[in-house]
Amino acid sequence: xxxESFEVIIGVTGQIDSEQVAIAEAASYLxxxxxxxxxxxxxxxxxxxxxxGDAQDWGIGxxxxxxxxxxxxxxxxMDEMAALAKVESVERIGVQTV
Length: 98
Description:
Layout: E1 3-12, H1 19-33, H2 38-42, E2 44-52, E3 58-67, H3 71-83, E4 87-97
Antiparallel strand pairs: 1-3, 1-4, 2-3
């Protein structure tokens, strides 16, 4: 199945004391919030980037590869990411694997 890669940045706010907890919060939100099940069922995490922290809110960037079968699946995935309140940005990073 064709796969495409994306960077999805999740905003994490509140009393988060460590980078590990911020990553766990963001991963939990993304997996649970994605009702298309694209992230929860078919994603492969490529990399994780952490922004902010300390006195700032956290931004957790997941570089992930997901199954995108066709243009409809791409639209459904992008619409789903746009609908999630804590998703600050989603960007295709141009890597496609088979």
